[in-house]
Fold these 2 entries.
Entry 1:
Amino acid sequence: MTSPRLTLTRRAALRAGAMLPVLAAPRLLRAQPAAVKIGILQPLTGALAQDGDLGRLGATLAAEAINAAGGLKELGGARVELVVADARSNPEAAAQEVEKLQAEGVVAIVGGFASPICLAASQAAARYDLPYIVDVGVSDQITTRGLRNTFRFAPGFGTVTNTALANLVRLNTAGGRAAKTVVLVHEDGLFGSGLAKLMQTELPKLGFEVLETIAHPTPARDMSNVALRIRALNPDLVIPSSYYGEFVLLARTLRQQRIRPKGIYAVLNGAASNYRFVKEFPEAAEGVMDCNHWHDPRKEEAVALKKKVEADGRLWAYNVPLNYSCVKLVADAIENAGAADRGKVTEALAASNFRGHIMPYGPTKFINGQNQGAAPVNTQVQGGDIKVIFPESFADAKPIFPLQG
Amino acid sequence: MKPRDLLPLLLLLGALALTPLFASNLLLNFLVSALIIALGAQGWNLLGGYGGQLSFGHAALFGTGAYATAILQVKFGLNAWLAFACGIALAALAGWIIGYLSFRARLRGSYFALVTLAFAEVLRILANAADFTGGAAGLLIKLQPGLANFQFASRAGYLWAVLACILVVGLMTLWIDRGRFGAQLVAVRENEDAARALGVDVLATKLRAITLSGAITGAAGCLYAQNFLYLDASIAYGTWISVELLIAAIVGGLGTVLGPVIGALALHGLGEVTKGLLGWLTGIDLVLFGIILIAAVAFVPSGLVGALRRLRMRGAAR
């Protein structure tokens, strides 16, 4: 059998020639500068997929907002284009995705979510002097390694726990010192065990007695044993540090078994300030307190964004405003640098004084890559809504503590 | 060992060594990670493929190599090359200990598989809790590109380092395959009692295999640590690595010299291609990966190398 040979006839050549101007037309019509690519690295599959999705949502909304407002003005109205990469909830995949983003020619990377992902990905990005903006990862190691390319907009572990402990003491004093004994429940990864270790040393100094520290893996499928242990110990206060699924499970199990401590005081919890938890399990969520990232309710842009997200039937969680702000921060740095050049953007980030974000931080000021003004807030689930209880300057509710059993 | 036997191995590795001349960093990065798995799978194949001792816990060896390299560098300031050598030695020792404990207790088949899985899990939990491993925070090896630090500014350096290891292990496997030790291993795999009756020291043979296997898989762990510069307990001792190693060897072809390399490249390549084609559907590569794996195991039980061999034989018969 003979195969038909591919030949280029004169007619075909002419036809192709005639097509050329048509193909080129959109470019001519727009006459715009090339889009600036920003890499978005989030755990879109695996155990942290929900958080990754929320982070991507925030970043996408920021890019839409920037482009709708005329793009990057210093670059002749260049559009911001996001390149999304999936960190698959593990640091190895994250480091590989950085290579992909590098090949795509992004000018900076935003995201990571979990600390191990941030640690590995920012180091991988450092090989290429590629600016990396950590969205959530709280480990203090992230900004103490001396990597010039790594910036964290949100507060780190030290800041959050200091605030959390100070507010816990205030809360307890105002509540007539109702809480004396504590049980710590934590996931056995980086963030949970780090937090538990710190609480074990700090709480006794503040007059609390730590009855027991209970570790559990992520993911965990059953919390009955943890709940039974809590029932046996009967603490005044439970301090959980877990990701979303495990905390929801714990709170539900406590509720089902009618175990009611005087308060559940979470620090950097994956669920305690998450609307999905509040909507799906309002009874279990009621009264739960958290010290965590939260948007600034005084800022109109933040309130409008929250409304928009909720009107679209999407979930609002801290990942959204954090990633929204981080992408805007990068855009601001690119404008200040005057070019989509990595070296210049890194310098612009280091010198950044950005006010256009929607977090309660004040203008950005980076020292060793850490934003100095960044601070957490305390929230409490009250009447099916998440209310800010500290700091008082913009709190929209009074704390309810101790809870009535 | 005839020169003809060496040809496929040298051709494949030679072709891979030339990729930096034209390939992008992205492709090189993919090759480095796939080949690190291939190296580890070679280690698994020596024990599992030739010796028939199916281990579900090679992460114990991989992780020991990785952690040893990282800890010796980070905490004791040892030179990276020395740490690499120590990592291999320690992983071999770990292999010997696991082998001694389980083979002396005459654990075979699924019992051996389960006990290796348990060893890996215990090590994972210990590494997660201990302080000198960095606990759950993991270990970061400082980024200092330079030959003296076993870190390369370009991906090609890592590629060649991994390929060199694979070549050494490939030659060693070939030598074992054709030699007395290989025959003893296969005899143990096929029928332990018959092998013993023929005068094969079963325990010594198995111990030699698992020690060598530990050294090879440990080397893969060391290279992993040098390449990613970040380790935590669930990376180094996680179940994922045990599974990847045995799947690469099984899909490639059990008890063959080239099987693990071909298996790792094919599986990882497939994952990347599906991700590239259907990237908009998050996680689709993992779904397809699973389907192809089931199909491979169900329809090509002798692995890719076996399938190729059969095709060639059919061609020759015609």
Entry 2:
Amino acid sequence: MNGTIEIRWHGRGGQGAKTAALLLADVAFKTGKYVQGFPEYGPERMGAPITAYNRISDSEITVHSNIYEPDYVVVVDESLLDSIDVTKGLKEDGAVIINTEHTKDELMRHLNGYKGNVYTVDARGISTRALGKNYPNSPMLAAAVAVSGVMDEDEFLTEMKSSFEHKFAKKPEVIDGNMRALKLAFDEINK
Amino acid sequence: MAIHDRINEKSPWTDITEGNKIYEAATSRDFITGEWRTSTPVWEPEKCRQCLLCTPVCPDSSIPVCDEKRTDFDYDHCKGCGICAKVCPFEAISMREGK
Amino acid sequence: MAVRERLSGNEAVAYAIKQINPDVMPAFPITPSTEIPQYVANYIANGDIDTEFIHVESEHSAMSATIGASAAGARAVTATSSCGMALMWEELYVAASNRLPIVLALVNRALSGPININADHSDSMGARDSGWIQIYAESNQEVYDNYIQAFPIAENEAVHLPVMVCQDGFITSHGVENIMLVEDDKVKEFVGEYTPKHYLLNADEKLAVGPYAVSNYYMETKRGQRQAMINAKKVILEAAEKFEKMTGRRYGFFEEYKMDDADYAVVIIGSAAGTCKAAVDHIRNTAKKKVGLIKIRVFRPFPEEEIACALANVKAVAIMDRSEMFAASGGPLGAEVRAAMYQAHCKAEAVNYFYGLGGRDITVSDFERVYENLEKMAETHIAVGMYDYIGLRG
């Protein structure tokens, strides 16, 4: 799939990984791309591992299969590293982005010798500081954009601001916190 | 023209309406079910007290009522089941073999 | 100007319903079609449309109420999936034989058992003999476009048959993709006002719907129903032509993808066709082999001669079924396409594969292997894995 960026999301049911994938599709769509955002569906089970996917391209996407050789992997919950081979099929010139307080070196034993780039971002810490609550999916979305470069930071933040203004029309007080969480993720991502 | 003159068992498939829809009402009147009768109810008006117990039990609505009084049987549609004779308390209806 | 959007397949159908504003929608929730009545109920609650939504206690009731509404003279729609449609079974036949122009959004899902919620065509394929027109989609765009076209097809006087607009559960129903929406006024103009000639609530005409037909009438009635299906072919193409004039998007009984010079072809239905297109492109760009694809859009009426004609010059073809029919041989698409080829004295080698049952994924490389098999078959004239499965653990 030349020219198509493929992203795989790992999270747990209820954490918003699917929502993050759909939001990424949303913002990429708004910047003029062809997009796909879809979860790998099974029965809905809170806390169970879930996978979601994005394809983002400048041309029409017809493939409807899951993604087995992603360019990027986003891990929304680091406890998945014990049970899931998150770097399976991940391209060596791609990257994995993990929500963690730990350093890259501390995580490497979970990554099955993955030779590509490993990014860490403390999405929980960022969310707690910016919003007072643990909503890791917004910072992870920002980190996915920062690493994959599917769009530039300003474009992303502008689009997100307008979708937050729409989504939180009835509680505008949370918009600033959400925007801060996105910006912090751009600043605090570690390679 | 009655419906059975237009659509009957000799009609080619092209004459059958879509889904057998019937674009008129009460076409069952055109079907002379009285022809099926092997036993025939006979009404004796002089014995009848006009209690009207027979009318509602007739499965074929073949006991016409006019000005709150029953009249003679509609033999075009009466199939001769004999329920009316059974319910009559005054022996005003009797069953006769044949049409 | 058409509206550039990104929607899931379920959102796309619900949006089309909003644009069409049908009179009545009885529905009962079942995964993965639940979102359709859910979104429509929202539109109604928000005052966007004045469709009468009927809450029912089962899918049997949903289809019964849809039939009642349609016979009464309403433009009536519903949505379901899998076991929900199985519960409608009896009523599906009633809707078709009573010649009611109902539109059903079917989100294809495997039938139990084992119980499974994912994409599979066993629900609609099981209903292939019920007398409904069946139109399938590869993408969210197609399901939206097919849904809009379903109304002028179903309501055409020469047809008067219900239409099932099918899409693959979760793959398109829950996947968000780019889509071009048609403007509201154009959709309304395309489907037009529904003005049935005969309907039960018409005070000026007495009407009986669904009378008993003894043997002396049944066969003639069924022949009439078959004629409606034959007539539907022309009407489907007319609707497609009119739709193309409006949107520029072209539809037919099936899509021929790079078939002009193809030696090897796949015949398939639904979302996997898009994945197969990527395989066709890849093989043509790298190995330079002449491969192509026929994606069936209209399965009922079945475009028998047209498919045989499209396959006339290929050397080998793989017909791929996303449902079992337990003939202990192949699947429904395989049986019908091979019958069409036989009738047309088609010389191509043909093989019938099962794939994707219960949502099993199929990839670009799976299709590449199918084309490799076809090339071998053309050389040896021996079928490679007749009735084989793609992705089955051996």
